[in-house]
Amino acid sequence: MSExxxxxxxxxxxxxAGTPGVGGTAGYVWTAVDxxxxxxxxxxxxxxxxxxxxxxxxxxxxxxxxxxxxxGIDVHDPGPEEVFVVSGTFNDGDRDHPAGTFxxxxxxxxxVPQSATGCRLFVFYPEx
Length: 128
Fold this sequence. Notes:
Layout: E1 2-6, E2 12-16, E3 39-42, E4 45-52, E5 58-64, E6 68-69, E7 74-75, E8 81-91, E9 96-98, E10 102-105, E11 110-111, E12 114-115, E13 119-125
Antiparallel strand pairs: 1-2, 3-4, 4-5, 5-13, 6-12, 7-11, 8-9, 8-10, 8-13
């Protein structure tokens, strides 16, 4: 089954309904978080990669179980890190950030990710 979509430029494209990774505009990509592969980073901390761009930019969901803590410090290199707290409460080693909080960590900054209650984060690295 297919549907016709109108792009912002006013042209039409055909997308196969229900076909992952195919949208109405060239380069349009989507994935369901629960379908993304799971990678264990540390005990109780998992990454679900969602997208990687040609320039190294990437988007992922980070899941932290209650009581989990990053092993060491998380240094933002080579570029910044953007975080949105989707659910739960995230602690950066300094303060708690409840669901709905956005954080920008510039390149070269660092923190110690942890969560007493558990949380789910959307994390974007615009420069890889």
